[in-house]
Amino acid sequence: MNIIFLGPPGAGKGTQAQRICDALSIPQISTGDMLRKAVKEGTPTGLKAKEYMDAGKLVPDEVLIELIRDRLSEEDCQKGYILDGFPRTVPQAEALEGIARIDAVVELNVPDDHLVNRLSGRRVCLNCGATYHVSLLQGRENCEKCGEKLIQRKDDAPETVLNRLKVYHDQTAPLIDFYQGKGLLQTFDGTKGMEEVYQSIMEALNKLS
Length: 209
Ligand code: AP5
Description:
Blueprint: E1 2-6, H1 13-24, E2 28-30, H2 31-41, H3 44-54, H4 61-72, E3 81-84, H5 90-97, E4 104-109, H6 112-120, E5 122-124, E6 131-133, H7 134-137, H8 158-172, H9 174-180, E7 185-189, H10 194-208
Parallel strand pairs: 1-3, 1-4, 2-3, 4-7
Antiparallel strand pairs: 5-6
Helix pairs in contact: 1-10, 2-3, 4-5, 6-8
Bound molecules: BIS(adenosine)-5'-pentaphosphate.
């Protein structure tokens, strides 16, 4: 199954995508993680992306479309995948139609006032992509999965979060109507607990398979 996860920054796309990919044995394709890796390694894509990401802006469509086209042609994508963070604009969604057949779009709906708190408390592992909230870490500073030191993302600073939310509403939210019109959209209440959100998504996906 080829699935898109859609929702504002901090809605829980990465948290849920990681767990569901483990359950379904399919890869999680997070464009945010791919870009952060490219920035860390100083590749040409990373050098282009860095200033946009630090400011909470979207990286240009052509960079992302190329990145996704290459990634989806890899062997591990043949049995399905979750796209976490792509597409994020209507031109990206239109380009994706020429690259892949999508079976479902999972939208996580969370109001803006929840998101600033979630993101300012988020800690991430740049090595394996695991995500935590500081309120649940009980002082731990290293990743439970791989032991790497956890960090706070630069774009999780409160003023950058507000800009990312604006960018989401202006450029990404139109995809809700785009996929609704194609009969692919399923919306979930992302303010519920992580376990409840996970169970609801799995139940809906099981009905499709
Ligand atoms: P990206 O990394 O994709 O960031 P994002 O979409 O802003 O999403 P986040 O990772 O911030 O949030 P999430 O929904 O995954 O939430 P999470 O599960 O971590 O993109 C970063 C940047 O890269 C962009 O700004 C852009 O510059 C660039 N980029 C990427 N893709 C692009 C594209 N296609 N086009 C152009 N540019 C692109 O959860 C957040 C926190 O909440 C965590 O602490 C978590 O523990 C907690 N949490 C999760 N679920 C719950 C819950 N149910 N209850 C309570 N807490 C919860």
